[in-house]
Amino acid sequence: MVLELAAEPAELGFDASRLERIDRHFARFVDDGRLPGWQIVVTRRGNVVHHSRYGHSDVEAGKPVEADTLWRIFSMTKPVTSVAAMMLYEEGAFELTDPISRWLPEFAQPRVYVKGSAINPLTEPATEPIRVWHLLTHTSGLTYGFHHAHPVDAMYREAGFEWGAPSGLDLSAVTEKFAELPLVFQPGSEWNYSVSTDVLGRFVEVVSGQSLAEFFTERIFRPLGMADTSFGTDDLDRLAALYTPEPGTRKAVRNDAFGQSGVGKPDYFSGGGGLVSTAADYHRFTQFLLRGGELDGVRLLSPRTVAHMTSNHLPGGVDLEAFGRPLFAEMPFNGFGFGLGFSVLLDPVKAKALSSPGEYAWGGAASTAFWVDPAAELTALFFTQLLPSSTHPIRQYLRQLVYQALVD
Questions:
Q1: In a domain, 271, yes or no
Q2: What residue stretches are annotated with the Beta-lactamase-related domain (predicted)?
Q3: Calpha distance 229→368 (Å, rounded)
Q4: The overall pTM is greater than 0.85
Q5: How far is 87 from 288, CA to CA, in rounded Å?
Q6: What is the mean pLDDT of the chain?
Q7: 75, 145, 154, 397: which could form a disulfide with 162 (CB 3.0–4.6 Å)?
Q8: Which long-range contacts (CB under 8 A, 24 or more apart) does 288-293 make?
């Protein structure tokens, strides 16, 4: 699939000379070694208004970024898993308030950390079951090993869950391991970026009777024409190399150990971060969202469901700064709430963002990102392969550069 410019920028409310600032700015990230290469797509009213690429997908091999380069999108998998779950919801398979233990009995009696060390924690029974909406909103009490902020995080790492999972475990086995670990807090009481969406992926498997890979391919990717999106790939010639920042200089250094993620078929299908995709494919996913659950005559969700998913679901309508733990996530906390699988912009002034209220978004660990702005009928996508995404303020720069070029 080819991304083609559909109209002159002025026809879509953009200043062409101002759009050029995007590429000039991010070219510097490559020229000084901070990024290996990148690909950017901006659309307005369903039309591609800006598509550019620069640098290399594999610096050492001298391979330039191509239109069909494959990128590890990591946590940009999460919105896809959330869509899968809500497709089943629309079929009446469950209610959002249902305890997940109805389908995942390993979560029948979760325990919650009270105090103590990772080696000898004191726990208590959960007073509230983990419900489906807790998984969708990251309010389940689950966590990530890479947070390095809580004794339970250390317990995840000890169990082999920091950046990935122990080899040989499928999604069912991984979920059972998560259920053996205590929760960081009582379900529904806080927001914490976590493996919730991986558990949601297993939930989709049990409810649908299909593996997550089968469900994605048959129910989402094939209908939407996303032929290049999958859990891992054998097309290594198109798969970009992965880089991490060198301590001190923060220049991108190839990291083939981390780069094994995305190579070949994985042992388990991570609904929280396992997909490989292209800019053209994920562009189609964002257009499906922008159009309220339909693309090219194929409807997977109703407009009402998409609107519900992209509303703020945090109690009292507060933002992540007020309800979330001050840990890493793929988006800022100030002025942003959280829906069913997406961050939701509540207050652009508080967020110091030029975007519109109601914008929804997420990103991936290798510095990929997307957002959908329904008010401006705009989408933007950024692809590169630098892990972690907190290394450079790429997403903040991209927002201000895209919106300064929008002049209507």
A1: yes
A2: 22-401
A3: 15
A4: yes
A5: 13
A6: 96
A7: 145
A8: 288/224, 289/79, 289/360, 289/372, 290/46, 290/372, 290/374, 290/377, 290/379, 291/46
Q: Dig out the tokens for 389 from the structure.
A: 């995404």
Regarding whether 246 and 183 lie in a shared domain, the answer is no
Name the residue among 125, 167, 159 with its Cα closest to residue 143: 159
Please name which of 240, 279, 234, 235 lies closest in space to residue 256, comparing C-alpha atoms.
Answer: 240
The tens digit of pLDDT for each residue in 195-252 reads 999 999 999 999 999 999 999 999 999 999 999 999 999 999 999 999 999 998 999 9
At residue 331, the pLDDT reads 82
pLDDT band at 1, cuts 50/70/90?
low
Residues 49 and 68 in one domain: yes
Residues 6 or more apart whose CB falls under 8 angstroms from that of 334 comprise 319, 320, 321, 350, 351, 352
Residues in the chain, overall count: 408
Q: How many CA atoms lie within 13 A of 268 on its CB side?
A: 24
CA 88 to chain centre: 20
DSSP characters over 237-256: TTBPP-EEEPTTT--EEE-H
Within a domain: 213: no
Give 231-246 pLDDT, tens digit per residue: 999 999 999 999 999 9
> How many other CB atoms sit within 10 Å of the CB of residue 309?
24
Which tokens hold the place of 77? Answer: 């998998």
